[in-house]
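task queued by scheduler; priority normal; single chain, no ligands, no partner chains; default sampling; output format set to structure tokens
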Amino acid sequence: MTFFKPLSILSLFCCCLFFTACGSRQDTPAAAAKSMAKAMQRGDIEAIMCLLNPADITQAGEEQVSRLLIASLADINDGEQGIQKVEILEETITADQATVKVRYDYGNGTQADKVMHLVQIEGKWYLRLM
């Protein structure tokens, strides 16, 4: 019986960890884009993966996507000296598809405007890779 108590605590911890990592706001395309930017600022690969379209991850392969994210974050942190500020410039929604224009201010003083493409699945917005 004492074996089950540590196992229950471990299971509860794992569930909390999963829901914390994937608990980003995804109720609007802009909220999902902002959650992505915050996860990028933290370098949180697990949170980023939770914000990506699951079908795109399956098609590209989870390991490949993870490697690309790690390389992209390294470029942002080394070259641009990290993301300092994120601003949502525009959000366009058409049925279950959306685009969000985002402005990134980097630590080296540069700015970049990027367009994110999103898809809505079961009420949540996910960023498209393809």
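post-processing summary
- Strands lie at 83-94, 97-106, 111-121, 124-127.
- The domain at 25-127 is CATH 3.10.450.50 (Nuclear Transport Factor 2; Chain: A,).
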